[in-house]
Design goal:
By secondary structure, the protein is of the alpha/beta class. It folds into 5 domains: 105 residues, GIY-YIG endonuclease; 60 residues; 176 residues, 3-Layer(aba) Sandwich (Rossmann fold); 178 residues, P-loop containing nucleotide triphosphate hydrolases (Rossmann fold), CATH 3.40.50; 87 residues, Ribosomal protein S10 (Alpha-Beta Plaits), CATH 3.30.70. It is 31% helix and 24% strand. The protein contains 20 helices and 30 strands. Strands 11-12-10-13-14-9-15 form a 7-stranded parallel sheet, sandwiched between helices. Strands 16-26-25-17-24-23 form a 6-stranded parallel sheet, with helices on both faces. The protein is globular, with a radius of gyration of 29 Å. It starts with a strand and ends in a 6-residue tail after the last strand. Bound molecules: adenosine-5'-diphosphate and zinc ion. The site of zinc ion has 8 residues, from loops.
């Protein structure tokens, strides 16, 4: 027997199947999709078995497979096929396409820090047991009554009696896998769906296979609809995948699913340890969990029969993997798996991506709408405060209106959420006298000030240095910390409202395991009046007592050099606005901005997504951006900037020769020109159809695959172009 093995070494040169001989003792366990250990040059590597052949004439010289890594296959036929498709889509290596499907604990080089643990149980052997006395009798009685009992329970009675019983062969030992997470099933009262919700559920479950865009305003009961559809397929014995952006994968969200579906739910998110993720993956693999709720990579959940795939907040850019390769979009993978399983794929959002809405408008997707909130109240009232005027009257970051309204909420014992929009924004140190700013010596990036360690850090390469008091350029003691952080806002807020109980939620305060969960729970119990935070507070949270949402600085995310910055700003502001007035009481929203007339901000006032969509579509058409054109970015990087640039020019010329109907822009230096002393150039392509593109790219990649001075990366539909 001969097996074709793809080894776990992500390099284009070795990204193919190598043949190995299967020794006698392994023949019964070798299957396609199982992992094995093989000799490779001077190394021993893990790899996936992708082919199994009869012994061939010339297979004498082949080396032996050393051992198998897992007891069972880790990738089934569907996923093996999906990996090949993904490779072709993204032009990444095949091995990276398989690795991205598996939990970290199943990756080579990860070491064996994650092991499967077992719990021991006992039951009675079916042989005659004579009458016993004392603790021996107690043990046997318990086993008789309960059938299977854990070792711990029995040793609590008497460990010496247990030993005696075992030595007489009265008991049989059983091992069961021990999962690190433990779920308590809770009681649950089903909500009666509104007629509109009911209609959405009916449409999807009756029509079945296909793509649906569920455009429903915040608080319109989308999550409730998802759960109803999942329940429908669960009753048919089918599984479901629910993707949510990492940031809204809050304990609250998971809790809602657990309340309804108990331990059929597996949750995959970054707060889990590698071991916990591995356990959740195994529960899915074995079919013990039928519903997975997770971030991007949960789209690869190894279910055998999928009933429905749901992508909530489908506009979120967290569904696109930018780095490392494979640079895939979870939405595309969802369509592919949907085809395989003949199941519906539902994209949900209050602010759909332009791409998806455009397809729905053209009838490529079924458009479903939930235009009203479940509570029957309108969307919250939005006031826009022009900070150009406000700053003349007040110092600090709070306009009079926002201050007054917070005050009213405190009096009425209602709750407030405040968002500090910090995307692409950070606190940096500069000199008041000469304008000097601290930059990273390896990257072209301003260093960020970290108060807790009193250091300046580079977010790209990790470089750090101590903060000086004197400017290294002019020698004056005039360094100032620019840019506001949540901490600074918290101090200001506490000065304005000394009685207020403020909860600050950002990456600093939630880094400890379980903190996020604890904070949300305590805010829900109304132990705090104000929740202040970054993007984390914008999405997915459902608090009934929140009647005011304030955005300190609505426009910072507008300043990012990206064609999607308006879209991202509009959707962030609508999302956070949607946290207000979700229950009986009316909600209010205050947006503070320096650009009150910018359409991405002014249109939030009436939460008029369709008006925003129209206006933004016009701009995209004029500038030839998605969804009118596809984009693709080629990045060339290396240590020698002029060499990289010269090769980039050659690549451009070759593209011009080989492609027609494609607009080729560049090469130009990337926004982040230097990262860790590697220089980066990019070429952007705009095109309508990509029939020849992948072939041409594949040639270019092949040409450079052994070149150590130049790395070429390709990103289709890039979500960011830094
Ligand atoms: P969305 O996901 O669209 O923001 P949710 O599903 O979170 O909306 O619903 C908003 C709130 O309304 C939640 O507290 C939810 O429990 C409640 N809700 C949703 N549907 C119903 C219903 N049919 N009856 C009663 N309450 C509902
Ligand atoms: Zn750096």
């Amino acid at each position: 027997m001969v097996a074709g093995v793809l080894v776990e070494l992500s390099h284009k040169n070795v990204d193919r199947v190598f043949l190995y001989h299967v020794p006698e003792e392994l023949q019964s366990s070798i299957q396609i999709g199982i992992r094995v250990l093989v000799p490779f040059g001077k190394m021993e590597l893990e790899g996936f078995v992708l082919e199994v052949h009869e012994k061939q004439e010339d297979s004498m010289e082949l080396k032996d497979i050393l051992s198998i890594v897992d007891q069972t296959i880790v990738l089934n036929q569907e996923l093996l096929q999906l990996g090949k498709w993904l490779q072709n889509e993204t032009l990444g290596t095949l091995i990276s396409c398989y690795q991205v499907m598996l939990p970290k604990a199943l990756k080579a080089k990860h070491g064996n820090s994650v092991s499967i643990r077992f719990d021991t149980f006992y039951r009675l052997n079916s042989i005659e047991i004579p009458p016993l006395k004392g603790s021996q009798k107690q043990i046997v009685d318990l086993l008789f009554e309960k059938g299977v009992v854990s070792k711990k329970e029995l040793t609590d009675i008497s460990s010496s009696s247990l030993k005696t019983l075992l030595s007489k062969n009265y008991l049989i030992e059983e091992k069961k896998e021990h999962y690190r997470l433990f779920y308590q099933n809770t009681s649950f009262v089903k909500k009666k769906l509104t007629p509109m919700q009911e209609e959405v559920v009916q449409t999807v479950t009756q029509k079945g296979e296909g793509t649906y865009l569920l455009y429903g305003v915040t608080g319109s009961g989308k999550t409730e609809v998802y759960m109803e559809m999942i329940d429908f397929y669960l009753k048919q014995g089918k599984s479901s995948i629910v993707l949510v952006p990492e940031i809204s994968l809050t304990p609250q969200m998971v809790q809602r699913f657990r309340e309804r579906f108990g331990d059929s739910v597996a949750a995959l998110h970054s707060a889990l340890s590698d071991g916990e993720k591995y356990d959740e993956w195994r529960r899915i693999y074995r079919g013990e969990a039928k519903i997975v709720i997770g971030a991007r990579s949960a789209i690869f959940a190894p279910f055998e029969k999928i009933g429905i795939i749901i992508i909530d907040e489908e506009h979120s850019d967290s569904y696109k993997q930018s780095d490392p390769s494979p640079r895939y979009h979870a939405r595309d993978v969802a369509f592919k798996r949907g085809e395989f399983h003949h199941c519906p794929v539902v994209l949900g959002s209050a602010t759909p991506s332009l791409e998806s809405m455009a397809r729905a408008q053209k009838g490529v997707y079924h458009l479903l709408q939930l235009p009203e909130r479940v509570n029957g109240k309108g969307l919250p009232k939005v006031s826009i405060v022009d900070m150009n005027d406000a700053m003349k009257k007040v110092r600090g970051h709070f306009s009079k209106l926002l201050e007054e309204e917070i005050g009213k909420r405190l009096e009425r014992k209602e709750q407030v959420i405040l968002l500090l929009n910090r995307r692409g924004y950070s606190s940096f140190v500069s000199c008041k006298n000469c304008g000097f700013t601290f930059k990273c010596p390896n990257c072209d990036i301003t260093l960020t000030y970290h108060k807790s360690s009193n250091t300046l850090r580079c977010h790209y390469c990790g470089y750090g240095e101590k903060v000086y008091t004197k400017c290294p350029e002019c020698g004056e003691e005039s360094l100032q910390n620019l840019g506001v952080g949540t901490q600074k806002i918290e101090e200001e807020l506490q000065k304005l409202f000394s009685q207020a109980r403020i909860l600050r939620m950002d990456y600093d305060t939630t880094s400890r395991k379980g903190m996020h969960e604890e904070m949300i729970a305590s805010f829900k119990r109304c132990e705090y009046d104000i929740l202040l935070g970054t993007q984390m507070v914008a999405k997915g949270l459902d608090f009934s007592q929140v009647t005011l949402v304030g955005v300190i600085n609505a426009d910072t995310s507008l300043n990012i050099p990206d064609f999607r910055s308006s879209e991202n700003t509009y959707s962030l502001l609508s999302q956070v606005a949607g946290r207000s007035g979700r229950a009986e009481k009316e909600g209010m929203v205050i947006l503070q901005t320096f650009n009150p007339d910018h359409y991405a901000i002014s249109l939030v006032k009436n939460q008029d997504y369709l008006a925003f969509y129209q206006q933004e579509m016009n701009i995209r058409r004029r500038l030839k951006y998605p969804p009118y054109y596809y984009l693709c970015m080629i990045r060339m990087s290396g240590k020698d900037a002029s060499y990289v640039f010269d090769e980039a020019l050659k690549i451009k010329r070759s593209l011009e020769r080989n492609l027609s109907n494609v607009e080729i822009l560049g090469p130009c230096s990337s926004n982040l020109f230097r990262v860790n002393n590697i220089f980066r150039y990019q070429i952007i392509l705009k095109y309508k159809t990509d029939s020849e593109l992948r072939k041409v790219f594949a040639k270019i990649l092949e040409h450079y695959q052994a070149n150590s001075k130049l790395k070429v990366d390709i990103d289709f539909n890039p979500s960011q172009m830094l």
